[in-house]
């Protein structure tokens, strides 16, 4: 899980101060010592840590906190706001050209996830923004890169422009842009060559492509798991090429989060997207505030709702929303939901987006795999309609019968009923959060 260590430590620290009716300078000092350690352990750049701690300390002993009625909570708010600021404040949008196509250069070192991200971005542009992208294979040096992009294009059913590996990348870019104009495609995503290390030839070539294609965006793709190396790479690319944004990949595996927290502050360039897995739909726009909330255990309900919207059809979503609100869905709906939720990504990751989820007991047992799902299906199908609608009537005798009928065991039936209850509780929580947010016009 992304930010695991940092989230745990910060939440523990915040927990201590949150309930305090009075916050002294000594309290703040003590808290900041822990925050500092937590950030350093998460591999955040030390200068960034220093600056962050200074800002939070100043604000925490200032009027806004000391005079407030709930100083403990105010300190947590300050930490959240400064974390958000650290990661770039506002969410950063993709630029669009006045006259299409919008050209985006994808740059980065080999293995960072550049080619995969090019495919993911094309997918997102089509799915979320209804755009028509052209993928351009301009990495003529890595033997498999062109093929890889072509395969991605096939999977996505999207055009890929390639001239093999004997034509210069600059010429490939030129012709690709022409083609996009002719065919009224609105985005040109150029997958450029990567190297193992930054070298002058590579930078020279990228500068040539930049000059010729006047891209609206130059996205640097970096592997978040490389921590401060990712930050250094970002700085070098920015110094020579002038990037417009960063895509942080493999955040799904980055338990520390140092790169995500340092890049913006060091390079002054925003993180635009984060890669959360190998699949083509595992790219998310980066929202600093939501990420800060996630780190502090306040949940990320908005992202969760967006994920649901992207995967559930509208009619069903409306029906579901009503059921959420009324907390009136049955085990049949639950079954239906499991299928849909599964499409949204790993369930345990999703649940961790809920406020306070990490403190919920048994949360780690909520993993659902294919086999379990078929068991769940069998269990639910072995229930009577009455039981499905009122699971509270399922007593020991009924549990035994259901287990027998579904070829499972009583503990499995018990577990399912418990999970269902948990889920219902969470849905309820989610819907109250959603309504509050609607009223306020956002989370904060
Ligand atoms: P390139 O050399 O920069 O073009 O890198 P590739 O696109 O070939 O990606 C390198 C590896 O990283 C591949 O195995 C990808 O599946 C994997 N990868 C890319 N992005 C992510 C991500 O966000 N999460 C995970 N877990 N793996 C990723």
From TrEMBL:
<dbReference type="GO" id="GO:0005525">
    <property type="term" value="F:GTP binding"/>
</dbReference>
<keyword id="KW-0963">Cytoplasm</keyword>
<dbReference type="InterPro" id="IPR036891">
    <property type="entry name" value="Signal_recog_part_SRP54_M_sf"/>
</dbReference>
<feature type="binding site">
    <location>
        <begin position="108"/>
        <end position="115"/>
    </location>
    <ligand>
        <name>GTP</name>
    </ligand>
</feature>
<feature type="binding site">
    <location>
        <begin position="191"/>
        <end position="195"/>
    </location>
    <ligand>
        <name>GTP</name>
    </ligand>
</feature>
<protein>
    <recommendedName>
        <fullName>Signal recognition particle protein</fullName>
        <ecNumber>3.6.5.4</ecNumber>
    </recommendedName>
</protein>
<dbReference type="InterPro" id="IPR003593">
    <property type="entry name" value="AAA+_ATPase"/>
</dbReference>
<feature type="binding site">
    <location>
        <begin position="249"/>
        <end position="252"/>
    </location>
    <ligand>
        <name>GTP</name>
    </ligand>
</feature>
<keyword id="KW-0733">Signal recognition particle</keyword>
<dbReference type="InterPro" id="IPR004780">
    <property type="entry name" value="SRP"/>
</dbReference>
<keyword id="KW-0342">GTP-binding</keyword>
<keyword id="KW-0378">Hydrolase</keyword>
<dbReference type="InterPro" id="IPR013822">
    <property type="entry name" value="Signal_recog_particl_SRP54_hlx"/>
</dbReference>
<dbReference type="GO" id="GO:0048500">
    <property type="term" value="C:signal recognition particle"/>
</dbReference>
<dbReference type="Pfam" id="PF02978">
    <property type="entry name" value="SRP_SPB"/>
</dbReference>
<keyword id="KW-0687">Ribonucleoprotein</keyword>
<feature type="domain" description="SRP54-type proteins GTP-binding">
    <location>
        <begin position="270"/>
        <end position="283"/>
    </location>
</feature>
<keyword id="KW-0694">RNA-binding</keyword>
<dbReference type="GO" id="GO:0003924">
    <property type="term" value="F:GTPase activity"/>
</dbReference>
<dbReference type="InterPro" id="IPR042101">
    <property type="entry name" value="SRP54_N_sf"/>
</dbReference>
<dbReference type="GO" id="GO:0006614">
    <property type="term" value="P:SRP-dependent cotranslational protein targeting to membrane"/>
</dbReference>
<dbReference type="Pfam" id="PF02881">
    <property type="entry name" value="SRP54_N"/>
</dbReference>
<comment type="subunit">
    <text>Part of the signal recognition particle protein translocation system, which is composed of SRP and FtsY.</text>
</comment>
<dbReference type="InterPro" id="IPR004125">
    <property type="entry name" value="Signal_recog_particle_SRP54_M"/>
</dbReference>
<dbReference type="InterPro" id="IPR022941">
    <property type="entry name" value="SRP54"/>
</dbReference>
<comment type="similarity">
    <text>Belongs to the GTP-binding SRP family. SRP54 subfamily.</text>
</comment>
<dbReference type="InterPro" id="IPR000897">
    <property type="entry name" value="SRP54_GTPase_dom"/>
</dbReference>
<dbReference type="GO" id="GO:0008312">
    <property type="term" value="F:7S RNA binding"/>
</dbReference>
<keyword id="KW-0547">Nucleotide-binding</keyword>
<dbReference type="InterPro" id="IPR027417">
    <property type="entry name" value="P-loop_NTPase"/>
</dbReference>
<comment type="function">
    <text>Involved in targeting and insertion of nascent membrane proteins into the cytoplasmic membrane. Binds to the hydrophobic signal sequence of the ribosome-nascent chain (RNC) as it emerges from the ribosomes. The SRP-RNC complex is then targeted to the cytoplasmic membrane where it interacts with the SRP receptor FtsY. Interaction with FtsY leads to the transfer of the RNC complex to the Sec translocase for insertion into the membrane, the hydrolysis of GTP by both Ffh and FtsY, and the dissociation of the SRP-FtsY complex into the individual components.</text>
</comment>
<dbReference type="Pfam" id="PF00448">
    <property type="entry name" value="SRP54"/>
</dbReference>
């Amino acid at each position: 899980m992304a930010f695991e260590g940092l989230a745990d430590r910060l939440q523990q620290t915040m927990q201590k101060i949150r309930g305090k009716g009075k916050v002294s300078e000594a309290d703040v000092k003590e808290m900041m010592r822990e925050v500092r350690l937590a950030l350093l352990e998460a591999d955040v750049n030390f200068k960034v840590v220093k600056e962050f701690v200074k800002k939070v300390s100043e604000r925490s002993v200032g009027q806004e906190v000391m005079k407030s009625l709930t100083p403990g909570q105010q300190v947590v708010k300050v930490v959240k706001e400064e974390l958000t600021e650290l990661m770039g404040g506002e969410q950063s949008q993709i630029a669009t050209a006045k006259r299409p196509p919008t050209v985006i250069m994808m740059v980065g070192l080999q293995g960072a996830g550049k080619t995969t991200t090019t495919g993911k971005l094309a997918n997102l542009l089509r799915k979320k923004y209804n755009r028509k992208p052209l993928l351009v294979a301009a990495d003529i040096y890595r033997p498999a890169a062109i093929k890889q992009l072509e395969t991605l294009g096939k999977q996505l059913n999207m055009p890929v422009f390639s001239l093999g590996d004997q034509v210069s990348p600059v010429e490939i870019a030129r012709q690709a842009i022409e083609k996009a104009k002719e065919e009224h495609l609105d985005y040109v995503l150029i997958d450029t060559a990567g190297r193992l290390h930054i070298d002058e030839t590579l930078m020279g070539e990228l500068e040539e492509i930049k000059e010729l294609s006047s891209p609206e965006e130059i996205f640097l793709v970096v592997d978040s798991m490389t921590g401060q190396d990712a930050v250094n790479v970002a700085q070098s690319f920015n110094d020579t090429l002038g990037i417009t944004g960063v895509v942080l990949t493999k955040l799904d595996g980055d338990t520390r989060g140092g790169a995500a927290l340092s890049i913006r502050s060091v390079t002054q360039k925003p993180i635009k997207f984060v890669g959360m897995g190998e699949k083509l739909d595992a790219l998310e726009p980066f929202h600093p505030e939501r990420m800060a909330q996630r780190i502090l255990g306040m949940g990320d309900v908005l992202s969760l709702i967006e994920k649901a919207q992207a995967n559930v059809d509208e009619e069903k979503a409306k029906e579901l929303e009503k059921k959420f609100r009324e907390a009136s869905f049955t085990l049949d709906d639950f079954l239906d939901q499991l299928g849909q939720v599964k499409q949204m990504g790993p369930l345990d990751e999703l649940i961790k987006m809920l406020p306070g989820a990490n403190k919920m007991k048994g949360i780690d047992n909520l993993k659902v795999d294919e086999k379990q799902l078929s068991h769940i299906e069998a269990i639910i199908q072995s229930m009577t309609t009455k039981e499905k609608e009122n699971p509270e009537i399922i007593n020991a005798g009924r549990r035994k019968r259901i287990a027998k009928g579904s070829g499972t065991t009583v503990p499995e039936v018990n577990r399912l009923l418990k999970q269902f209850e948990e889920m219902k509780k969470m849905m309820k929580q989610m819907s109250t959060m959603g309504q509050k947010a609607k009223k306020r016009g956002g989370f904060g």
